[in-house]
Amino acid sequence: MRKTAARIALAVMLVGLLIVAIINRNGALLPDIWVNYYSRSIYPTFSYGFYTFLNYFYFSVTENAVVILSIAAIPLVVLFVVSIVKLAKSKGKKALGAFLYKFMVAVLVVALVGVVQFQLMFGLNYARDSVSEVLGFENNESNDDSDEELLVDEYEAACEWAYQGMTQARSRLGEDYNGVTHIQTNFEECVYDANACITAFSEEYGLNLSMNYVRAKPVSLSNLWSQTAITGMNNPLFGEAIVNTDNMNSVDFPIALAHEITHARGISRENDANFVATMSLCLSSRADFRYAGFLQLYDHFRGVLIMIMDSNADLEVNIPGDASELAGVNRDLFASYAYWFLLEDYSLSDFINQLAEDTNDAYLESNEQEGGTDTYNVPSSMYLDFYLMLVGNEESNESNT
Fold it and tell me: Is pLDDT above 70 for 61?
């Protein structure tokens, strides 16, 4: 009877793993309406308990678990090997086989629970409607390359908008003795305000993100993280967003923080998470958040205009930017670059960085994110579409008044 029950349990687990593996293919075999219903209506409730429980801890449970397991890994492996050798000598091969069978079943149970947890907390959200679809950008013809002059005008206007937002926000920030700006509050306040602006953005534009508060955690070993070029991560198994705090500058840090919180709120695609993070910061009441968001936009739009200018010398392209105002922005950027350049002095930095990049790339590819780490890049046309939508709404509101 025990053998029969064990075999049935093993068969059920194997079938369960197969079903979960099929679902893991980006929810491709599930109807869109099912996935969207789950992401918009079930995920917020399901995830609430995990994030609420983890909010009681001000330290990263994920980081501590990894450190403890890393330290204990070798002793545990040695203990396991010694135990099975002793078992084989004292009770024979039959007892050893029974033990290994039970051990395998236990491993499969843990794996099944882990895979299901990952899918419910993160995997299925890959298949929800993209942010572009929700905002109605998919069929937007404003970026038709057949009218290149109109396209240039639109990008120039968007770049000017980003430039004004960036410089105005920076003018409200203080500078240190090197002329570099910094984040204006402590980490916990940054987390609170990032949650608030993402909530406001979701409600304003109908993204239906989870409304639970996500207490992002600082990483104690942030300097080691920096050597892998990792600025943050979302752990769906524990329901925890953790952020590298070794360099809380005004250029990169707000984007990384908002990005991980956006993941935890129900957006799994990397480019969508970057878009929501950037635009939420741009519409924030905090000057340092707006500065980071508009700087990201200005960099995107400026890059597009430069490419257009290089590819067509006949077109007149004007890139907004006053040298005196950009001097301060450049100081902030150089300070950020200097931090990352210093890490090149570490002997293992290149190896660790490449290993982390390859691992993340493989992870994204396995979750149907074709292009791997390239999917972090938000198409500039998506930012342009959003700008045009804002302009259109403002003009509509003015005409109605």
Answer: yes
The span from the CA of 78 to the CA of 72, in Å, is 10
Asked whether 238 and 61 are in contact (CB, 8 A), the reply is yes
> Rounded to an integer, what distance in angstroms lies between the CA atom of residue 244 and that of residue 218?
6
Two tokens, residue 99: 């033990």
354 band by pLDDT with thresholds 50, 70 and 90: low
Please give the Cα distance from 167 to 283 (Å, whole number). Answer: 15
Kindly state whether residues 304 and 393 are assigned to the same domain.
yes
Tell me the CA end-to-end span of the chain in Å, nearest whole number: 79
Strand pairing class (240-243; 217-218): parallel
Same domain, 189 and 253: yes
Which range, of 6-15, 94-103, 113-122, 166-175, averages the lowest pLDDT? Answer: 6-15
Residue at which a domain ends, from 73, 99, 127 = 127
**How far is the C-alpha of 303 from the C-alpha of 162, rounded, in Å?**
13
- Per-residue pLDDT band at 142 (split at 50, 70, 90): very low
Q: Tokens standing for 126?
A: 């890959």
pLDDT over 90 at 331, yes or no: yes
Distance CA 36, CA 38 (A): 5
Give the whole-angstrom CA distance, residue 215 versus residue 390: 30
What are 56's two structure tokens? 């009681």
Q: How far is CA 247 from CA 66, 342, 388, in A?
A: 22, 12, 34
Answer for the pair 288, 183: CB distance below 8 angstroms, yes or no: yes
CA distance linking residue 318 with residue 247, whole number of Å = 34
Check if the beta carbon of residue 204 is closer than 8 Å to that of residue 37. Answer: no
Range of the domain at 115: 2-127
Same structural domain, 92 and 159: no
- Cα 262 from Cα 241, distance rounded (Å): 9
Relative to beta strand 217-218, strand 232-235 is unpaired
Residue type at 73 in one-letter notation: A
Give the domain-ending residue among 67, 95, 127: 127
261 token code pair: 């919180």
Q: Is 182 helix (H, G, I), strand (E, B) or coil?
A: strand
Cα–Cα distances (Å) from 83 to 75, 86, 89, 221, in that order, read: 12, 5, 10, 34
What would the DSSP string read from start to end of 196-245? HHHHHHHHHHT-----S----EE-TTHHHHHHTT--EEEETTTTEEEE--
Q: How far is CA 157 from CA 153, 304, 313, 318, 389, in A?
A: 6, 13, 20, 10, 13
